[in-house]
Amino acid sequence: MPTYKFFALYKKPEDVPAFLEHYENVHAPLARKIPGLQKLVVNRITANAFGGDAPYFLIAEMHFESKEDFDAAMASDENRATGKDAMQFAKGLITGLVAESD
Fold first, then answer.
1. pLDDT digit string, tens, across residues 51-86
2. What is the DSSP letter of 36?
3. Can you give the pTM of this predicted structure?
4. Does any domain span residue 31?
5. What is the pLDDT of residues 7-41, one digit of tens each?
6. pLDDT for residue 102
7. What is the CATH number of the domain that holds 90?
8. Per 3-state DSSP, what percentage of the chain is helix, strand, and coil (rounded to 5)?
9. Is residue 57 situated within a structural domain?
10. Number of domains composing the chain
11. Distance (Å, rounded) from C-alpha 22 to C-alpha 63?
12. What is the mean pLDDT of the chain?
């Protein structure tokens, strides 16, 4: 059965220390409260393997066991609070993608 993931891809913010402080102390704790979340993986991008600037600064992965768990999580109050926070501190920097994994 496939698992479902939500990826949040963040472009580099102007104030990296302030962004990371908010992400680590406010945003990630909110995300960890989302029901059905199995795992949150935060990837800080260090380089573009093909040269040049990396298009993203940070990529977060939220793992869910099933589509049903994912759908319920996305409809939850906890997810709405997390999304509202993202729009306050990362508006214009964030892209959200949904993936199905084997």
1. 999 999 999 999 999 999 999 999 999 999 999 999
2. T
3. 0.93
4. yes
5. 999 999 999 999 999 999 999 999 999 999 999 99
6. 85
7. 3.30.70.100
8. 35, 30, 30
9. no
10. 1
11. 22
12. 97
